[in-house]
UniProtKB/TrEMBL annotation:
It holds the Pfam family GASA. Coiled coil: none annotated. Residues 1-21 form the signal peptide. Keywords: Signal. The keyword Cell division does not apply. The keyword Signal applies. It comes from Actinidia chinensis var. chinensis (Chinese soft-hair kiwi). This is Snakin-2 like. Belongs to the GASA family.
Length: 105
């Protein structure tokens, strides 16, 4: 009887330790996409990421607006202030304006 209580106590303590460690690592926010391709996407701060991306652009307001649209649709902003578009995949690289120019900075 004592051994059963001891084992039960150990299991309960182990479960509590697992739950508390999971709570500490839960800093990342995710978004569930509904539909055929269900997946978890990180919630991005598009405003801050695009502000950094467009900081050296000659027209930062236009760049930030276009970057925000691309970030919202593709859930990605490439690192750095220019280039590296292939990091975000075809969604980012293939998006075009009505004038058939690349949209995403």
């Amino acid at each position: 009887m004592v051994s059963r209580c001891l084992i039960l106590l150990m299991v309960v303590l182990f479960c509590i330790a697992q739950v508390s460690s999971d709570a500490k690592t839960g800093d990342h926010q995710t978004q569930v996409v509904r539909g055929a391709n269900r997946r978890l996407l990180p919630l991005l701060d598009c405003g801050a990421l695009c502000k950094d991306r467009c900081s050296l652009h000659s027209r930062p307001n236009v760049c930030t607006r276009a970057c925000g649209t691309c970030c919202f649709r593709c859930k990605c902003v490439p690192p750095g202030t220019s280039g590296n578009k292939e990091v975000c995949g075809t969604c980012y690289t293939d998006m075009t304006t009505h004038g058939n120019k690349t949209k995403c900075p």
